[in-house]
Amino acid sequence: MPGQGGSGAISALAVAALLLAWWTTAELKLVPPLFLPHPFSVLDKFFVVAFESVSGSDLLGHTMASLTRILGAFVLACLTGIPIGLAMGVNRLARGVLDPPIEFYRPIPPLAYLPLIIIWFGIGEVSKVVLIYLAVFAPIAMNARAGVRSVSVDRIHAAYSLGASRAQVFWQVILRGALPEILTGMRIGIGFGWTTLVAAEMVAATVGLGHMVLDASNFLVTDVVVMGIVVIGVIAYTLDLLMRRLEAALVPWKGKM
After folding, report:
1. Domain that holds residue 97
2. CATH of the domain at 76
């Protein structure tokens, strides 16, 4: 698209400016290292954690544990949220039954029902995955429903008039028309999953990026905290870029009609 190259250059300059401001602030000791460690100190910690065990594992171990929890919850949310959202969009009964509970819990912060999750599922891996799943499920289901509702009625009637069956209308017209909204919901959902990561790994976790950050904060090891935050942000941004690529491949017509 026109302007993407210029936008990328501006983004690169903005990141460079932020890094320069960080380096300058730390170099001039305008803020104590306890509150804002030097960028080189954070970089050193990255290499230390990459090869040595910190808070129960090395960086790869923490990253794989977090990715396993989030991707597992994300897949489960897609397998359940998309069909439920589609059902809510095409069926009035399903919408009437499922819409109230989803809309009720959707705006509630995950930390609010974290104690209940612990009571129900204990402090093992299941409770962590369930907490992330609940954060991811709602945006996926509601966007799938919105996608169905956005499909033009004229297109549905036109398909029926050309002799299409109900199954053909659903797969070729409704699902195809709802796909852009579904993919948007997946992007939003995986973002919510990452924001819930630290809360999920507060539940007696022994490994994971959120656990590493929390454990380091307990001992005021700020450079590890900042390093963990940067890693979480980079992985989240990478996943978002992958979702954008998937969206461009599956719905290349989005925004062009």
Report:
1. 25-250
2. 1.10.3720.10
Give residue-wise pLDDT tens across range 123-134: 888 999 999 999
Count up the domains in the chain and report the number.
Answer: 1
Taking CA atoms, 218 is separated from 38, 45, 207, in Å, by: 20, 17, 15
pLDDT confidence of residue 98: 92
The residue written with tokens 């026109």 in the block is 2
| Mean pLDDT score of the chain | 88
pLDDT category at 256 given cuts 50, 70, 90 is: low
Nearest to 87 by CA among 104, 105, 99: 99
pLDDT-derived band at 72 (thresholds 50, 70, 90) equals: very high
Sequence-distant (6+) residues with CB within 8 A of 137 are 77, 80, 81, 102, 189
Question: Is residue 2 domain-resident?
Answer: no
Contacts for 215 with CB less than 8 Å, ≥ 6 apart: 55, 56
Tell me the three state secondary structure of residue 54.
strand
pLDDT of 7 > 50? The answer is: yes
Output the CA angle 54-56-33, nearest 5 degrees: 30
Segment (H or E) for 70: helix 59-90
Q: Which burial class, exposed, middle or buried, applies to 229 when counting CB atoms under 10 A from its CB (0-12, 13-18, 19+)? A: middle
Do 181 and 199 contact (CB within 8 A), yes or no? no
Asked, for residue 6, whether it belongs to a domain, the answer is: no
Q: Is residue 12 part of a domain?
A: no
Helix (H) or strand (E) holding 257: none
Write the burial class of residue 241 (CB in 10 Å: 0-12 exposed, 13-18 middle, 19+ buried): exposed
Encoded tokens for 188:
């939003």
pLDDT (tens digit per residue) in 170-216 = 888 888 889 999 999 999 999 888 888 887 887 778 899 988 998 88
Residue 19 lies in a domain: no
